[in-house]
Amino acid sequence: MPKRILQGVVTSSQNEQTVTVSVERRFKHPVLMKTIRKSKKYRAHDADNAFNVGDTVRIQECAPHSKTKRWEVVTEASAE
């Protein structure tokens, strides 16, 4: 089964080797037909402490690194 890759913005990098990434998804409400934005925070492993608050990054599913970390930072997303 392929690993999921999500793109989001780093909201916290205070912890050692960990960043908190906020991922936003948009979808259309089935009844109201209105676009809805929902966001969710993921804690991702950043081995080199390379990313800071405000960076746009891609994260990928991985084996657990700790109790809360199930994702790891793959690369910085290109500016589109």
TrEMBL record:
It comes from the Bacteria. SUPFAM superfamilies: Nucleic acid-binding proteins. Gene3D superfamilies: Nucleic acid-binding proteins. Coiled coil: none annotated. CDD domains: Ribosomal_uS17 (cd00364). One of the primary rRNA binding proteins, it binds specifically to the 5'-end of 16S ribosomal RNA. Belongs to the universal ribosomal protein uS17 family. Part of the 30S ribosomal subunit. This is Small ribosomal subunit protein uS17. It comes from Rubricella aquisinus.
